[in-house]
Design brief:
Length: 432
């Protein structure tokens, strides 16, 4: 059963505690996978897919015929749902693009900034319990908006070598370039190092289990990554007018993800806290993934009781949750007070599941308290900023003594001489 705490009496360490991935020998196992893929390439990928997913693969990539066949297997109504969700995601993320700028306010000086897309990206899509079409849409569409040329989606196949038709249909709608039948640390290794069949990418994004997270951490620097994602989290901040059945349902929507997932209620109403505790027990009985959700609720769930909504906001900001629901009468009044959250759901009619699938904001979010300093996946994750600078000879000469003095202040004489070498060279430069 979920635990109840009084906010002013429980130690801060207990409020902040989260499930920790404790699998032994993860690093050693991931190191072995990375080394094997780096040395043996495609052969290692086939071997690991047989070992971990039970699939004997002839080809590592989904064929056009497989893609077309998968789309035909998806119910037309769900295909339309995928297209509507994709349009919502495009509409939201299209507002995240940036314009280049140029400054010419000083005589003889031109400077500015330009944005260019990353050339190639790998997208990890978890395969349990199925390859999630929602993750495909959320992670691929911002990359397409950014202008990424090549997007390789990697997801583990079923033992027969197939991938869930809905995920393939989502990949086609989102604009994936190629689909790699491979998951886990071996997929990260293939995209980070490159093999004969799998091209090396510049960035790897997307969620995954502990082995994917460890592999992403280990290849960072060789390639870029989005984040190290931990177990899923939800914090529901609710007042006493909230429906306990709704609150419990929202908490279980995250608890069913993973035994290590975290579901938290923060409320200023003891009556609601007790009612939600009872309601969780009732709803767990009929939940198909009740074994997973039960472990999450019992081990990682919390109900925190405060004496005011202001204190509830303080608790939420301390926890910095991945998903934050504000189930109160005036959610927009509390929104400016929220400093740390991946995504905020306002009011009683915006459950977190709405954002997972359909509304538009991204569902790949910072976890484990990293919302204190990081952000949801978006178009910014798929572009680079470059600055540029131009000075005429006269403009350079006007600041030459100051730049030389600055360089010598830092003890870098060659820097100063690079400026001094151009003194008195007026007229040698073309295009002044």
């Amino acid at each position: 059963m979920i635990r109840l705490f009084d906010f002013d009496k429980v130690p801060a360490s207990e409020i902040l505690t989260r499930a920790i991935l404790t699998e032994e020998n993860v690093d050693a196992a991931v190191d072995a996978v990375l080394a094997a893929v780096r040395a043996e390439g495609d052969a290692a990928l086939r071997s690991f897919e047989k070992q971990f997913d039970g699939a004997e693969l002839d080809g590592l990539f989904v064929t056009e015929a497989e893609l077309d066949a998968a789309e035909a297997q998806v119910a037309p109504e769900f295909l339309e749902t995928l297209r509507m969700a994709a349009e919502n995601i495009r509409a939201f993320h299209s507002r995240q693009t940036h314009d280049d700028f140029v400054l010419t306010d000083k005589p003889g000086v031109v400077m500015g900034q330009r944005y260019t897309p990353i050339e190639s990206v790998g997208v990890c899509v978890p395969g349990t319990p199925v390859a999630f079409p929602s993750t495909v849409l959320m992670d691929v569409i911002p990359a397409k908006i950014a202008g990424v040329r090549e997007i390789i989606m990697a997801t583990p196949p079923a033992p027969d070598g197939t991938i869930a038709p809905a995920a393939l249909a989502a990949a086609k709608i989102a604009g994936v370039t190629r689909i790699l039948k491979c998951g886990g640390a071996q997929a990260v290794a293939a995209m980070a190092y490159g093999t004969k069949s799998v091209p090396k990418v510049d960035k790897i994004v997307g969620p995954g289990g502990v082995y994917v997270a460890a592999a992403k951490r280990k290849v960072f620097g060789l390639v870029s990554i989005d984040m190290i994602a931990g177990p899923s989290e939800i914090l529901v901040l609710a007042d006493g007018k909230s429906d306990p059945g709704w609150v419990a349902a929202d908490m279980l929507s995250q608890a069913e993800h993973d035994k290590l997932a975290s579901a938290v209620l923060v409320t200023d109403s003891r009556a609601l806290a007790e009612a939600v505790r009872d309601e969780l027990e009732i709803q767990l009985e009929t939940l198909p993934r009740r074994e997973v959700a039960r472990a999450s609720i019992d081990n990682n769930g919390k109900i925190i009781i405060t004496d005011s909504l202001e204190k509830a906001v303080e608790a939420a900001n301390r926890i910095a949750p991945e998903h934050l629901e504000l189930c109160v009468d005036e959610p927009f009044a509390l929104l400016p007070l929220i400093r740390n959250a991946g995504s905020v759901f306002l009011g009683r009619n915006a459950p977190e599941a709405l954002g997972d699938y359909f509304a538009g904001p991204n569902h790949t979010l910072p976890t484990s308290g990293t919302a204190r300093f990081s952000s949801p996946l978006g178009v910014d994750d798929f572009v680079k900023r470059s600055s540029f600078l131009y000075y005429t000879c006269q403009a350079l000469q006007s600041v030459s003594p100051r730049v030389q003095g600055f360089a010598r202040q830092e003890g870098l004489e060659a820097h100063a001489r690079a400026i001094a070498a151009r003194d008195g060279q007026n007229g040698k430069e073309s295009g002044q």
